[in-house]
Structure formats: C-alpha cells, structure tokens
Write a structure and sequence with these properties.
mainly alpha
C-alpha cells in the first residue's frame, strides 16, 4: 500500500513510458515542422516562377497576340498580385511553423525537466531569431516580392501604357 502523495511502482513505470512516448512524438513533430519550411519554400519558388513567367510572357507577347495594352497591363498586375498572395500565404505558413516549433520545444523541455532534471535542455530564446533559417526564408520571400514589384514597375508596367 502506498501513502498519500507517493506513487506505486507500476504507476511510476507507466508515467515513464508515457513520457518517453510523448518525447518521441514531440521530436517527430519538431522534425516535421523543420521539413515543412523547405516544402513551403519549394512550393513558393515553383508558383512564383510560374506566375512571374506568365506575366513576362504576357508582357513580351501582348502586341503579337493583339491584346490591348490596358488588358495586358491588368493581366500582368493580376499575375503579380497572385504571386504576392502566394508569398503572403507562404510567409504565414512559415511563421505558424516557427510558433509551433517554439511550442514543441518548450514541451520537450517540460518533459526533460520532469524526467531527467531541471535545465537538461535549455528553452528556446526568441533572441536567437537571427540564427533561425525561417527568418532568412521569410526575408528571401519578402525581398523577392519587393524586387518583383519594383522591377515590374520600372521595366514592364511603364512600357504598357
């Protein structure tokens, strides 16, 4: 018989096994979140290339295809706007992934604190933001969208009046 506040040996074993399984699950989720960033970046790159390629094709061929300049300009703006929406969605997915990663890492620290010892794993710090590759993926996407609109305004849209 156990006293109040003590844990039976079989309950202790059950808790340890549960903690180990939870820890494995958390590590798997962290791995998945890390992989998703590359998937999102790949999808963004493919869609951005296709959409901006379509805009450039429209710009190059609108005279040959007898399309009115105002219609072609609207088409280019529409394709570039769609590229911007894809970029915004990708940035949102990367940010949500980073927040999920923080949550899983904190949960990982909770499990190791309880099972191994306090501060076995240091908690993530948002001060390390510039060491996270998600930061640079977001900067890349934002920079590419700014460059796309700037170059389009200078070279493409000004020619289609």
């Amino acid at each position: 018989m156990t006293t109040q506040g003590s844990v039976a040996p079989e309950e202790s074993t059950l808790r340890r096994e549960f903690a180990i399984e939870r820890y494995r699950y958390i590590l798997q989720q962290i791995h998945t979140v890390n992989e998703n960033v590359y998937r999102f970046l790949g999808i963004y790159q493919a869609l951005a290339t296709a959409l901006t390629g379509g805009a450039l094709a429209l710009f190059v061929g609108y005279r040959r295809w007898n399309i009115e300049p105002s219609v072609a300009r609207g088409g280019v703006i529409g394709l570039l706007s769609l590229t911007s929406v894809v970029a915004a969605f990708t940035i949102m997915l990367v940010l949500v992934g980073a927040l999920s990663w923080l949550d899983y890492r904190n949960e990982e620290c909770d499990v190791t604190d309880a099972m191994v010892g306090i501060d076995f794993r240091k908690r993530p710090r948002t001060g390390n933001l510039f060491r996270w590759y998600e930061t640079y993926v977001i900067l890349f996407i934002a920079t590419s969208i700014i460059a796309m609109w700037t170059l389009a305004a200078i070279f493409v849209l000004s020619e289609m009046k």
